[in-house]
Amino acid sequence: MRTLIANIGTLVTGDIDAPIADADSILIEDGRIAAVGRGLTADAGAGGAAQRIDAKGTTAIPGLIDSHAHPVFGDYTPRQQMSNFIESGLHGGVTTVISAGEVHLPGRPKDIVGLKALAIVAAKAYGAFRPGGVKVRAGAPILELGLEEHDFAEMAAGGVTLVGEIGLGSVKTGAQAAPMVAWAKQHGMVVTFHTGGPSIAGSNPIAADAVLEARPHIVGHVNGGTTPMSDADIERVIDTDMAIEIVHCGNGRAAIHAVRVAASLGGPDGQAGLRRVIIGNDAPSGTGVVPLGILRVMAHLASLGDVAPEIAVAMATGNTARVHGLDTGVLGVGKAADIALVDAPIGSTASTALDALRVGDLPGISMALIDGVVMIGRSRNTPPAARAAEVVGAPGPAAGAH
Questions:
Q1: Of 65, 10, 66, 60, the residue nearest 33 (C-alpha)
Q2: Do strands 218-219 and 243-247 pair parallel, antiparallel, or not at all (unpaired)?
Q3: What CATH class is the domain 2-62+330-393?
Q4: Over pLDDT 90: what percentage of the chain?
Q5: What pLDDT does residue 17 have?
Q6: What does the alpha-carbon distance between residue 94 and residue 88 come to, in Å, rounded to a whole number?
Q7: pLDDT tens digits for 289-342?
Q8: What residue segments make up the domains of the chain, in order of their start?
Q9: Looking at residue 398, what is its pLDDT?
């Protein structure tokens, strides 16, 4: 299966070190990006192109990655008693969802055998099921006292690649968490630590000391989920090498403070601090289900936080992919062809998707692809895009790539 996306106005790569490419077309073969460039045509690779998409001058971005979600099973959330919430997020440009723990399962087991079983089943279930086509990486155990190294080995052997946000279970101090974090890392798991005030009954407030002692991969919702740590503690955890997660279901002022602190740690290339910022939703939660949450954080940071809009895109795509070792999140050769075609919304003062983010408007999504397959046309959730990409069929005779 081959697809050519042509007539792209701006191609935002998702790579924070090279955020905009000099390109107007993308060639996709068998679900992966085969070429990115100008004037690409049907014979940029072997075989004949199956379809051609006219981007109509809109902006191409990687499919967004929600770094912090709380799925359970299927596409239903007990927390908000809502079906198809993941598929609805696809209409907000989200093509990959990462679980921070299946905490909303009614009667969630907290014994060692039960929590391991839940993590393994969730990992395997979502490995075999994509709600609306969305890729879900789940099976994120909530750590409880009594876990030992062999438990992490067992979960890893069962396909578990994550640890849910530490602090939602009985493990709540740095001393308790540190050995478990080390075991999880040893077995290839990406670890998130809850920060800020408690988010659900039975969870715990977590300040900087615990996180700094445990050294997870990700400082979960540094702007709170929903209540953040103190500004001083936010500054302490940012001045590390850990990934810094900003979420929609958090404190907006703290999000701006965090990203400005990260920007101040720019280093020689000016991007060192911002390379570690990732964006999540932290939904479903008491805040609700927020299909446009990732877009809203991007617009918040770009319009109020002095973040260039193409950098905000990278925070929601390539930065997260790097932390989790995903083969998506960047529009580059060899990557999974998870792509959103977006534009300024009708009625905006902006004329492009990036300018829309810069003025605080949500871009309109006119098409989303997962593994090169068109999953949706115009989004039912974003404001309508001023220009809409269109599948126009197979390309005509080609003269080769330029």
A1: 60
A2: parallel
A3: mainly beta
A4: 91
A5: 96
A6: 9
A7: 999 999 999 999 999 999 999 999 999 999 999 999 999 999 999 999 999 999
A8: 2-62+330-393, 64-291
A9: 38
Token pair, residue 142, equals 């909530």
d(CA 299, CA 314): 13
Which ranges of 64-134 does DSSP label H, i.e. alpha helix?
85-90, 112-127
Express each pLDDT in 121-141 by its tens digit: 999 999 999 999 999 999 999
Helix, strand or coil, per DSSP, at residue 206? strand
As its CATH architecture, domain 64-291 has Alpha-Beta Barrel (3.20)
Residue 79, pLDDT > 70, answer: yes
pLDDT number for residue 1? 82
Beta strands in 162-290 (DSSP E): 162-166, 190-193, 218-219, 243-247, 277-280
The yes-or-no verdict on residue 45 having pLDDT over 80 is: no
Q: What separation in angstroms does the CA of 389 have from each of 7, 61, 90?
A: 9, 13, 16
User: Strands (DSSP E) along 134-233, which ranges?
Assistant: 135-137, 162-166, 190-193, 218-219
Structure tokens at 229: 């740590």
Q: Decide if 107 contacts 393 (C-beta within 8 A).
A: no
pLDDT of residue 165: 96
Distances 359 to 85, 168, 277, 301 between C-alpha atoms, Å = 28, 37, 21, 10
Same fold, 2-62+330-393 and 64-291: no
- The sign one gets for the Cα dihedral 187, 133, 315, 139 is negative
User: End-to-end CA distance of the chain, in Å?
Assistant: 21
Against a cut of 0.85, is the pTM above it?
A: yes
Pairing of strands 20-21, 10-12: antiparallel
